[in-house]
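Please check this chain.
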Amino acid sequence: MDLVRVTEAAAIAASAWIGTGQKEEADRAATEAMRDRLNRIDFAARVVIGEGQKDKSYGLYWGEVVGARREEVLHGSTSIYEICVDPIEGTRPVVSSGPEALSVLGVASFAEAILPSQTFYSLKLAYGPRIAKYSDIRVDAPLSEIVCQASKALGKSVDRMVVCILDRPRHAEYIQQLRRLGVRIKLIQDCDLSGAVATCLPDSGVDLLYGVGGTPESVLAACAMKCLGGNIQTQLADDEGRPRPGRIYMADDLVRGDCVFVATGITSGSLLRGIRFTERGAVTHSVFMRSRSGTIRWLRTEHGN
């Protein structure tokens, strides 16, 4: 519950800026609320994935140590966790009253920060447990091959497949290929983290997430995929979104060992409902997952004023 309170606090703080158009203020509020809650937890944790420097925001920055025991780290008198944070996954939807914005936190025994100061984008392929179990699918394969292998693993025809992809100019060729294959496309404006998680949820209708997006979100998604039994593959890309030949990172490469994924909805989307307010106070919807136990908890919480 301490970890859930972290994303709840950030989401509630961000909700004050829904529809205002003020991205920096929304980010500042969510980040400060998240840091404050993290510093109340009886542990020490180092931020290994954070978007503050990329977005010129207010942290939480890579390397920052948080938690009530953070001072003990200097003396080597306490162990330290590694965390991935995104106070607002989807700042633009927040300030424009769009869908799918979340506050997200991942905690792991080891989270591999893939060149966080240099490589911001990756080509991603995310899919659920059935494809992970019955397919040798690879993100660097031709898109037609990826779709056909996924179709076979799921036991459904290609024309019934649903592929989620960010609506970006860099994806124009991918979208044309998907149209030619006859698959159904779910175009999203932001928040491909939700799209990745959706591939593991039977009622979402999404079979694959594909396309170039933020590398930090890949690591956060890996936390969720490990808990849900799915997988995400990433191939690093340049600043123009062109994949670089080289190593393919799987979920187990991005996040090693036992991990936890926590998210609270800011605006309503396919994964969680957004913040709403009653006379009593804020109402939040959150999810807590742990990979070791496979536990998934969906939480509706009423907060007093």
About this structure: Residues 117 and 265 are 28 Å apart (CA to CA). Confidence is low (pLDDT under 50) at residues 113-117.
